[in-house]
Specification:
single chain; alpha/beta; 7-stranded mixed beta sheet; 5-stranded antiparallel beta sheet; 16 strands; globular
Length: about 350
Amino acid sequence: MTTITEDLVRRRAEHNDGQIGTLEELSLHQQQIIKIDHLQNWCKDLKILFLQSNVISRIENLNKLKKLEYLNLALNNIERIENLDMCESLQKLDLTLNFVGELTSVISLKNNRNLKELYLMGNPCCKYEKYREYVIAALPHLMVLDGIEISHSDRIIANRDRHENHFRIIEQQDEYGEKRKSEKRNMNISKEDNNVDYTDDTGFWNEMSDNTPETRLAMIQHCRKSKENVVDLGVSKPKREVKLFKKDGLPMNVNEAKIPFTLTEDEDRKNFILTVEVYKHLDTSLLDVDVQPWFVRVLIKGKVLQLVLPEEVHPDQSKAQRGISSKRLTITMPKVNMISRKLTLSLSC
C-alpha cells in the first residue's frame, strides 16, 4: 500500500512548480493510498482534493483545510462519514461507491453549512428504505443529493416523517451492522498466498466473492504481490503482441481477455448492445471502453476485447454502464442507419 509522502505531493504539484504550500488543487487518485495524512499541514490552501480510487478506510486528518470546497473520495473503503466538521468551506462531497452503512453518521455534516452537494450512490445505505428522506431531513442546507436537486416538497415530506424515518433507518442500519460483523468473521484472506503462482492468477479473478472493503483491499494486495513475485522470480516473459488491425487497416475481432460477451440489437434495431461479463469484484478503474464508428474495444485489466461492428455507429452517443453490484458491463451504441438485419453474436470463454 502507498502512504502520502512529500515527494508524491510535489510530483503531483507540477502545475504549481512543485510548490505544495500554495496548492489549491491536488489529485492523488489511483495511488493505492490507504490513509489520509499530512495534507492538512502541507497544503493548507487546498480548495479541491481528489482522492478517488484508492483504499482509504477512514476520513481523517483534513480538519485544518479551512478552504477546502470539493472533496472526492469515490471508490474507497469508507464505512462512515466523520471528521469533516471543521472544513467550513466544503461545498461538495463525493463518496460514491464506498461502503457507508452507518447512515446516521451523515449527521456529522450538519455543521458544514456551505455543503450543497452530497453523493452517496453505490453505498449500502442507499438501499435503506427512506434513505433519501432521512438525509434531506438531517441536512437542511443540502441542495443536491446523488445528483438530484432537492425540492421544497421533498423537504416538507422528509421533515413530516422525520422521527418515523429515523427509527426505520436505525433498524436497517443495525441489520447491516450485523451483516458486516459476519462478513469480517468469515473473511479469511487466504494463508496460501505465498504458494500461489502469481504469473497465472486467473483463479483469483474468477473466484466468487462479496463486495466488501476486505475484498477490495485483497484485490489490491494480490496485484501488488503478483508484481513482486514476478520480479523476485526473474520472470520476464515477452508480452505477445496483440494484432488489432489487418494490414489494410481494417479492425479485427480479438478476445485476449477471454471473457464472455453478447452482441445484439435492441427491439427497435436502432442500437447495438454489447454485454460483457466482467469479473465480479474487478474495480471499475481497471476497465476502459472505446467506441469507434466500426468497432468497439474494451480493456479489462489491460487485456483487449475488440469486436468489429456490422454497421456504423455514433461513438459520441454511445454509453457504457456497469451495475453497482453486478459483474455485467453494458455498452449501448446507436446506429447511423436505423434499419438492419437481426443480429445475435455471443462467445463464452
